Amino acid sequence: MTWGRIIAVVGPSGVGKDSVIRRLCAVGSNLQCVRRVITRPSDAESEDFEGVSDEEFSARLAAGDFALHWRAHGLNYGVPATELAVISQGVDILVNLSRAVLHDAAESFSDMEVISLTASPATLAARLKGRGRETAEDIGRRLSRSNDDWKRTLPDHVLIHEIANDGSLDDTVRHLRARLCPSSRPFTHDAPN
Ligand SMILES: Nc1ncnc2c1ncn2[C@@H]1O[C@H](COP(=O)(O)OP(=O)(O)O)[C@@H](O)[C@H]1O
Ligand SMILES: O=P(O)(O)OC[C@H]1O[C@H](OP(=O)(O)OP(=O)(O)O)[C@H](O)[C@@H]1O
């Protein structure tokens, strides 16, 4: 049995990572989303994650539960190793990662690809405001966070799909699906955002 790929979705806050992940998982038969652990109260509006306290996060980290973990936006994020187990059954997994952990991830997983989403600063600002999850101050901090070094640190075998998500989500997902699953049939989507 061939192992599945770990497909990391990265990009600035508000670019559409969670939206793209949700939509790709809804239309892709061999794609599974990862449920991250985050020290943020659970929120039905955005991604499906497990919200935990700082204490619980630390305990799970100490127990070795996380395959990857990082800190950003004043929050702790973890990818439970159990969420990645399906890779050994040939399933591809999609996961929203910090650009700061891509190098470590590429060392841990032999078959990794990266979806790098981009959008103009004006688009990002409008989307974060529209999402309404953060305060104006927090949005300002998210917009000023940059991380452009990650590409240089990745081994050559990691395939990078760079896609602008300034246009419609449908177009982005169609484009990505063709790149990730070239043999799949085109779809007419009717999945929710
Ligand atoms: N292509 C798109 N067109 C319009 N709105 C979008 C698009 N992609 C995402 N959005 C919206 O932008 C906001 C931020 O998207 P989200 O997926 O939460 O981004 P991220 O996970 O990168 O922070 C959400 O309100 C989402 O519905
Ligand atoms: O190091 P960076 O590449 O800048 O990424 C920092 C964090 O931003 C995203 O988190 P999250 O999904 O909570 O935030 P977002 O929805 O605002 O992007 C991403 O998953 C990382 O956890």
TrEMBL record:
Pfam families: Guanylate_kin. It catalyses: alpha-D-ribose 1,5-bisphosphate + ATP = 5-phospho-alpha-D-ribose 1-diphosphate + ADP. SMART domains: GuKc. The keyword Cell inner membrane does not apply. Keywords: ATP-binding, Kinase, Nucleotide-binding, Plasmid, Transferase. Residues 4-181 form the Guanylate kinase-like domain. SUPFAM superfamilies: P-loop containing nucleoside triphosphate hydrolases. ATP binds at residues 11-18. Its EC number is 2.7.4.23. One of its GO terms (biological process) is 5-phosphoribose 1-diphosphate biosynthetic process. PROSITE patterns: GUANYLATE_KINASE_2. GO terms for molecular function: ATP binding; ribose 1,5-bisphosphate phosphokinase activity. PANTHER family: GUANYLATE KINASE-RELATED (PTHR23117), RIBOSE 1,5-BISPHOSPHATE PHOSPHOKINASE PHNN (PTHR23117:SF8). NCBIfam families: phosphon_PhnN. Belongs to the ribose 1,5-bisphosphokinase family. This is Ribose 1,5-bisphosphate phosphokinase PhnN. It comes from Qingshengfaniella alkalisoli.
